[in-house]
Design brief:
224 residues, alpha+beta, 4-stranded antiparallel sheet, 7 helices
């Protein structure tokens, strides 16, 4: 059961969708949020559901997936703190085309469709942010389709590693845990093939394991 969230305005300011709201709207919004906890493996939204809320991730990680009757699935994206989903709710009343599943225990904030629509109607900048987000997702979908169609598995693995990386002290590193099965589901390949490509990249000096991080050497970009 969702419970009143007792959300601070500072917490909402960390969410890109709400960062432009004036203080009085943030204060009102904070009173409208509901908080709910989910266990690892819980399905927050299932394909075919009619969702009626915007969800904001407070803690934990989730995956957005599509699957078939045989149990195969493709991971469309992963979500973490301060990210959100369900932002199409005010625009599209169609059933959801993907499922959202908790990868670990997580806490979410929920804002009802009615209150979300009201916020959008009262704040043009917030509406623009939602539109930009939807356009970005369309572009990402086009890019992923292009990668699947035009790149071999080797190129897809390299491209995914570059997407997962961040720059720290002038070095490009992947700090998040790498799960080869998840990588395979994100690029439409087998786990065995991903493992083979990763071994080859490491053996040829394109990547280097350093403790819990993966260092990407500059020459890896030539392998895309």
């Amino acid at each position: 059961m969702a419970v009143p969230a007792n959300v601070s305005k500072l917490l909402l300011l960390k969410v890109p969708l709400f960062a432009m709201l004036p203080e009085h709207q943030l204060a009102t919004l904070a009173t409208l949020m509901r908080r709910k906890s989910f266990a690892r493996g819980a399905t927050i939204i299932a394909t075919g559901d009619f969702t009626d809320a915007l969800y904001i991730v407070i803690s934990g990680k989730l995956k957005v997936v599509i699957g078939d009757d045989s149990g195969r699935e493709v991971i469309l994206s992963k979500l973490g703190p301060n990210q959100y989903f369900g932002d199409m709710v005010p625009i599209d009343d169609s059933p959801r085309s993907a499922s959202v599943i908790a990868l670990e225990p997580c806490d979410l904030l929920m804002l009802s469709k009615h209150e979300f629509r009201k916020c959008l109607a009262e704040n043009f900048e917030m509406t623009l942010t939602v539109m930009r987000c939807l356009i970005q997702r369309l572009r990402e979908a086009d890019r992923k389709i292009s990668n699947l169609a035009l790149m071999d598995v080797y190129g897809r693995v390299v491209h995914l590693l570059l997407e997962m990386s961040e720059t720290i002290d002038g070095r490009q590193v992947v700090t998040q845990k790498i799960v080869k099965q998840d990588m395979a589901r994100m690029i439409g390949a087998s786990r065995e093939m991903v493992s083979r490509v990763m071994r080859d990249l490491q053996g040829r000096g394109f990547i280097e394991v350093r403790g819990k991080t993966l260092l990407l050497h500059e020459n890896i970009e030539t392998k895309e």
